[in-house]
Amino acid sequence: MSLKWSALSIAIVGIVCIVFGVMGIIGAGDSEQEVADELAPVTISALDATYDQISAAYSAVRGTDTPEESVFLGKKTSLGLARSNLGTISFVRNTSILEIILGAGLVLASIGRFKQD
What sign does the CA torsion over 62, 66, 72, 74 have? Predict the structure, then answer.
């Protein structure tokens, strides 16, 4: 009887891991779309190149106290935050995939525990 309770608890934890993993992947996809919408004229694939261009332009006018300096600094900050958000989204997606794999392993382990009894 003890093995059945043990297997049942392992199966429940595995199913919860799978559900949270799927929710994480869905949430990451929604968040990535939101970032893409906020960057409307810039695509996600061109984000790094655009950031590098703006960063170089800002470096050229840094310390001049001109209006262009503020504009370039604002654009550089905005693009940098978008890059940071995309990195976090990628981390969440990868973690969710690992969580699904862990959940599937726990469910398979619980099946093995059921067969032992």
Answer: positive
SS3 content of the chain, % helix, strand, coil (to 5): 85, 0, 15
Query: Sign of the CA dihedral 19, 22, 28, 29?
Result: negative
SS3 state of residue 100: helix
Segment 20-67, tens digit of pLDDT: 999 999 999 899 888 888 887 888 888 888 888 888 888 888 878 888
**Given the structure tokens 């969580």, which residue do they identify?**
99
Instruction: Name 70's Cβ contacts closer than 8 Å, sequence gap at least 6.
Output: none
**How many other C-beta atoms can be found within 10 angstroms of the C-beta atom of residue 81?**
12
Q: DSSP labels for 9-65?
A: HHHHHHHHHHHHHHHHHHHHHHHHHHHHHHTTTS-STTHHHHHHHHHHHHHHHTTS-
In whole angstroms, give the CA distance from residue 30 to residue 19. Answer: 17
CB distance 60 to 53 below 8 Å: no
Share of the chain above pLDDT 90, in %: 37
